[in-house]
Specification:
alpha+beta, 33% strand, Immunoglobulin-like, 9 strands, elongated, single chain
Amino acid sequence: MPLQRLRDRPWATGNNRTALAETSRFRGFSRHSIAGLAAIAAAAACGLVAGCGGESGPVPEAPPYVDPGFTEAGAYRLYYAFTLSTDLPSGIAGSYGILPRRNLAVLALTLAPSDERKAPAIDAPEIEAVAVFLTGEREALSLTRRDEAGRPTWIATLQVPHRVPLTIEIRARATPAGPELRARLTREFRLD
């Protein structure tokens, strides 16, 4: 087919360089688009260099969570502790009648005034604790009351699994009309 006949057909102009050069469809890159592409390429290169740099040292560890061990509402404070029975000194465990075992944890709860100088009365206190397992199963804990130094203290024991988080939900009132104190703590014990 002669060249003249190809130029007359629009589908053939895409394969013919001279026909492309004569049309206004091919303009090449303008000075502004080349500068824009160069800026994008430079930014991408800087991003790669910054992200893939040499060793910058170890990543610092996050500070550990420190549970305050108490909650307050109104003029009252609820102290709580949940620990393995083997971590208790033998004299303390014995005074509560607890025989330390590898998989036995102890929950201790104490109601006290938040300001010792005012010392409002703790009259007919109500308290409950529930263990919530990873499966969603809930178990009410059997709390035994003891009065220590004029403050009501409750103790409960619970068998705990190895390296499985366990949540304890606590609700208490120092007086029937007093504010509700709530605490929720999650622990995971390593029984090695």
